[in-house]
Write a structure and sequence with these properties.
The complex is a heterodimer of chains A (about 250) and B (about 250). By secondary structure, chain A is an all-alpha fold. Chain A is built from eleven helices and no strands. Helices cover about 85% and strands about 0% of the residues of chain A. In chain A, helix 3 (about 50-80) crosses helix 10 (about 215-240) and helix 8 (about 160-195) runs antiparallel to helix 10 (about 215-240). In chain A, about 35% of the residues are buried. The two termini of chain B are about 25 Å apart. In chain B, strands 5-6-7-3-8-9 form a six-stranded mixed beta sheet, with helices on both faces. In chain B, strands 2-1-4 form a three-stranded antiparallel beta sheet, covered by helices on one side. Chain B has about 250 residues and is α/β, with parallel strands linked by helices. The relative contact order of chain B is 0.20. Chain B is globular and about 45 Å long. Helices cover about 35% and strands about 25% of the residues of chain B. The chains are: A mainly alpha (about 250), B alpha/beta (about 250).
Chain lengths: ~250, ~250
């Protein structure tokens, strides 16, 4: 079942790429309008060392932002569970921050946090923070009364219930939020690189666009897509490792 | 006999629906009390009230006096009807939750757990996830967890409901034999006691010193019988417990 899904997905991508290649060749489209996949691949190959450098920068920013944002979101969710009034205080601020588009926030962050990777990590963290906070908070609120009562019935305190029941019970939902957040992380890093910086896939794409090197723009885009995929895959694998009982309960 | 656990005039209702009606129950030091009654008579509610675990929505009148250990730590361990095993912990860590909550040193708890896994027929399943265990095994694991808390007073809500007759007999023997000792926090403090809720009259008579029968909802004590010293033959006693005439 699973191998068939993977095979069909891969075949679809191959067919689309072939159609694209055929279209460009049949219509003799110039490279600066729409390069063929083969042209993109060959320029990516030619620029491999440079691209590796830019990709590494973006990957580090995305992963660092993912870690910081996840940790912050999870921590705030736990704090709100411990002290509900904190939730009432944080709620409007968090909600407001989510209505601010990344692109308008980025210049301010650069203004305050300076050039370099700092503001980019911060921007990714802000993007990631919200889904993790929301999903963890919801899971912490939905206490399984059965388990909490069991701990209380053994003489456990509120802290025992938090530590032994609520926190571990919220882990799958927190990881679910992280999986959603992971799909945003690379994109947020690239957007912040559009605005400033001297390294990263966003920088590379901007420079290529200004030079009308459309094949390089496409190479950059392809790497953004690949990097996003790798980050999501890593998060999915990590969350499987972190919740072994779930894997065991649903053999697929 | 010193009373360990006392409910006096306990009346409980949920949203206007009366569940328990002025229940008086005194459990003495070293006593094994079985609470029996038809389904829905409030047995579990009584046990929850004794454990101090009534839902916030319940309106309660009357008084429950629970024992405490030195330093105000609770002396009661309650075992829910459903096993409430934590799905993210393997069998052994699940069993150790009781000890963890009670602050029993980890090494000591592990030693006791190893012995009890053997005795409860769970040896070899220490690393199994709860969902990999049968209903009966889960229930035994839940009882094990409750015993490892080392509280002197055990409140057990149908601990053997999911067991096959043979295993049930074995667990009954275990509970009858060392049940009272099992709760044992070493020396001092309040006395030991077991309150067992069951729908199995046979089990109640076989295990308990006293059998308390609750009537139909709202639950009230319709019979409180000392079966340890009773000279009535067991069959006659069973008859009396199950027939409405005997209850009156």
């Amino acid at each position: 079942m699973r191998t068939r899904r993977v095979a069909v997905g891969a075949a679809t991508v191959v067919v689309l790429l072939a159609a694209w290649e055929a279209l460009v060749r049949a219509r003799h489209l110039p490279e600066f309008v729409l390069p063929a996949p083969s042209q993109v691949a060959s320029s990516a190959w030619r620029l491999a060392p440079l691209l590796a450098h830019h990709t590494a920068t973006t990957a580090v920013e995305a992963l660092a932002g993912l870690a910081v944002g996840t940790l912050a979101g999870w921590l705030l969710a736990v704090l709100v569970a411990v002290l509900p009034v904190l939730g009432d205080i944080a709620h409007p601020v968090v909600l407001l921050s989510q209505t601010l588009p990344t692109v308008v926030l980025a210049p301010l962050l650069i203004l305050w946090a300076g050039f370099g990777p700092g503001p980019k990590v911060l921007l990714v963290a802000l993007t990631v923070f919200f889904p993790v906070l929301v999903s963890t908070s919801a899971a912490l609120r939905a206490v399984d009364a059965e388990h909490a009562d069991m701990v209380a019935g053994l003489g456990g305190t509120w802290w025992h219930r938090l530590w032994l029941v609520r926190l571990p019970a919220s882990l799958p939902a927190a990881l679910g939020g992280l999986r959603i957040a992971a799909t945003y992380a690379v994109g947020a890093a690239v957007v912040s690189e559009y605005l400033d910086g001297d390294s990263g896939l966003g920088v590379f794409i901007q420079r290529s666009r200004k030079a009308y090197a459309v094949d390089q723009v496409f190479a950059g885009i392809a790497l953004v897509v690949l990097l996003s995929g790798v980050v999501v895959l890593a998060v999915v694998l990590a969350s499987r490792l972190a919740t072994p009982w779930q894997r065991a309960s649903s053999p697929s | 006999m010193t009373p360990v656990l006392v409910a006096a005039g306990l009346t409980v209702s949920f949203g206007g629906l009366p569940v328990l009606s002025s229940v008086d129950l005194t459990v003495g030091d070293g006593e094994f009390v079985a609470v029996v009654g038809p389904s829905g008579c409030g047995k579990s509610t009584l046990l929850r009230a004794l454990a101090g675990l009534l839902a916030p929505g319940a309106s309660v009148s009357g008084e429950v006096t629970r024992p405490v250990l030195d330093g105000g730590r609770p002396a009661v361990a309650w075992m829910p009807q459903r096993d409430a095993l934590l799905p993210w912990r393997r069998a052994l860590p699940n069993a150790l939750v009781g000890a963890r909550v009670a602050g029993v040193p980890a090494a000591q708890a592990r030693d006791r757990a190893a012995a009890l896994f053997e005795e409860f027929g769970l040896a070899g399943f220490e690393r199994a996830w709860p969902h990999e265990l049968s209903g009966g095994m889960r229930q035994r694991l839940a009882l094990l967890r409750t015993c490892l808390a080392g509280r002197p007073v055990l409140l057990l809500d149908e601990p053997f409901g999911a067991l096959d007759p043979l295993t049930r007999r074995r667990m009954n023997a275990w509970l009858a034999g060392i049940g009272l000792a099992a709760g044992g926090a070493a020396g001092g403090g309040p006395g030991r006691a077991v309150v067992l809720v069951t729908h199995d009259v046979d089990e109640a008579v076989a295990l308990a010193d006293r059998v308390v029968v609750l009537g139909e909802r709202p639950g009230r004590v319709v019979l409180d019988l000392d079966v340890a010293t009773s000279s009535v033959p067991r069959e006659a006693l069973l008859e009396a417990l199950v027939s409405p005439a005997g209850i009156r």
